[in-house]
Design goal:
The complex is a heterodimer.
Chain A lengths: L1 H8 L9 H36 L1 H8 L4 H26 L3 H31 L15 H37 L9 H26 L6
Helix pairs in contact in A: 2-3, 2-7, 3-6, 4-5, 4-7, 5-6, 6-7
Chain B lengths: L20 H5 L4 H29 L10 H36 L8 H23 L13 H5 L4 H28 L12 H33 L12 H35 L6 H15 L14 H29 L8 H24 L1 H7 L3 H31 L5 H28 L13 H31 L39 H9 L4 H4 L3
Helix pairs in contact in B: 2-3, 2-4, 2-15, 3-4, 3-6, 3-7, 3-8, 3-13, 4-6, 6-7, 7-8, 7-9, 8-9, 8-10, 8-11, 8-13, 9-10, 10-11, 11-13, 11-14, 13-14, 14-15
Classes of the chains: A mainly alpha, B mainly alpha.
Chain lengths: ~220, ~550
Amino acid sequence: MAQTIAPHFSQVAHQFDSAEQQRDAATLGMWIFLATEVMFFGGLFTTYSVYRALHPLAFAEVSRHLNITLGTINTAVLIASSFTMVLAVYGAQHSRRKMLVLCLVLTMLLGSVFLGIKFYEYYQKFVEHFVPGSAFQFPAPYTREAEMFFSLYFLMTGLHALHMIVGLGLLATLTILAWRGRFSSSYYNPVELSGLYWHFVDLIWIFLYPLLYLIGHHLR
Amino acid sequence: MEAVESSAAPRVHYLNINYGWKSWLLTTDHKRIALLYLVSITLFFFLGGLFAVLIRIKLLTPGTALVMPETYNKLFTMHGIIMVFFFLIPSIPGVLGNFLIPLMIGARDVAFPRLNLASWYLFNLAGLIMLYTVVNGGVDTGWTFYPPYSSAFANTNVAAAVLAIFIAGFSSILTGLNFVVTIHTMRAPGLTWFRLPLFIWSMYATSIIFILGTPVLAITLLLVGAERLLHIGVFDPAYGGDPILFQHLFWFYSHPAVYIMVLPSMGVISELVPTFARKQIYGYKFVAFSSVAIAVLGFLVWGHHLFVSGQSVYAGMVFSFLSYAVAIPSAVKVFNWTATLHKSSLSFDAPMLYAFGFIGLFTIGGLTGLFVAALGVNVHVHDTYFVIAHFHYIMVGGAVMGYLGGIHYWWPKISGRRYPEGWARLAALIVFVGFNLTFFPQFLLGYMGMPRRYYAYPPEFQTLNVMSTAGASILGVGYVLPLIYLIWSMRYGPAAEANPWPSTGLEWQTTSPPPTNNFEKTPVVTNEPYDFPELARQRASGALKESEQPA
């Protein structure tokens, strides 16, 4: 069914000469967009790394107050979601509509689990008075540095979570289109490009996790 | 516009294909979007100019005059923010880049036309927030937003201004993305990389900076905004933060941003010089690669803004060396333009007068850039009017001259009308004289020690300040004149032919103004770029007769 409908949907926009040119343009566009995202998060990672280098003992002490178990579970959840995303792209490439829809739904589920755990962690931090502001509490002598650490922690994981939510929106749109049989082996570029974005957001977490949770634990 | 048409059925082109506000505000035609940008940035240019006028009137007198010191701080801040983020950065990419890139590469549109329109809307949203900032009392941090003043102490609309620039940044990022994809994937058959017009090369280099630099500014301003609104510590020393880190991050974008402003103008000049010299450009590949070299090296020189900020002396040495290095590709361009003029048959139409202005003023701006890149001299002239004069020679003498030259050069293609040549030459001359009278005295003031951004100054500096203000009023006349006669020409100017100068390049092979789809059929390129002998042969044999018919 998908094969017969797809050519009708995959019409080439007026500015392009061929479907191939359109696909090349969209793919290059997504890679460039990801490059801008690397620079965007790069500024944040730089800021964090500079302060981590300026206050190594303080940052090590504060990062021991993060929940490593939940962080590790979340890392596994996210890697699993990347795997189901790859399977979704495979399903689209081979015109297997049921597999595509199932894997997209699984990816969204895993993404939601990640966000759920993340927000539970936020809740814990709120209870422990680790949210920067007037109610912030942290034992001396690292009170000020701890507030800085948690400012950066919430900014970095918050921006990452925002990207996850955008990704969930993309996947939801794809799922509806896939359900209607829009994608097939002759037209699957949107699935592939959304997959690129999803992997990129996962990759950001792969850097956030050691930076925030793991490094410097031996420092006292 | 139909008033002076003589033929019974006027030719359908992108301007008259349909009318009404919807056909403009919802257009995805790159040429119409270019005109939308033209309207937006012209408004901001004159708003930023108004602030400059007020600054210059205040500086006529050494003591209190016209405005209070607090207001003066706001005036130079808003002049800087509006001119940099709302005029110079989007000017040539938004107007000429949008209009010309698809035409020059023989495409029907940019790769993502709806994204292109979205960029314009983002720009205007940012502009509206900026106007709100201005009306709501302005902002007084200087366009550089240095913390901790901007994040903890300033009592003005810092958050709104930062938000405006954040959004304007995404408009630039999307424009850059669109241009790079368009240039990579949509070139006409036969249009290899080394057959591209040099304007395309410089827009490509500019887009690279948009893509890699602007996100860093966005995150930096986001951090300042978060620090200010949420009262958290990011750059605040009280929390163990480092204000110098802000300066590093800010200039990582904002120094390359200078090349965002001047590279497109260099691209325009690289089109003007061969056209009006009727000669192939000297050293095409050197000019092309120097654009890329400027974009790459431009990312490695930001530390020269921090020579007196508490940066390590070794970092200072490296940044000083790299700042000298970036002068090499800039000089390559100037030498190649000059070599192109050698033994050419030169004509002195208004665009070429702007090109001459650019080459001279940019050279002065570039050479004084070497002064301030030297560690020792920098300490002496740091934050003085010497620096103000230096970067105005680049950004006004360079970027704005190139922009005006380009607007005049492509005006027949954009509007389908000729502008009045005599008035245009006069305006170019007035701009050149007014510019030099405004900014050359500032080199002297700075060298004698007048600091930038100061409200009051010692009486012995008054003569040079009066000269500068007098020059600014002449410059103002030079900027208002084109506004008047270009608008006049849209109705009363004589109809333009397809290739009026004449020049090579695909944009001149379609009619003026072009049809919505740019070309009747996709052109095939067989010539090297700037092949003027071939153009002369074609025109002699009448091969271009048909498309030469006036609209």
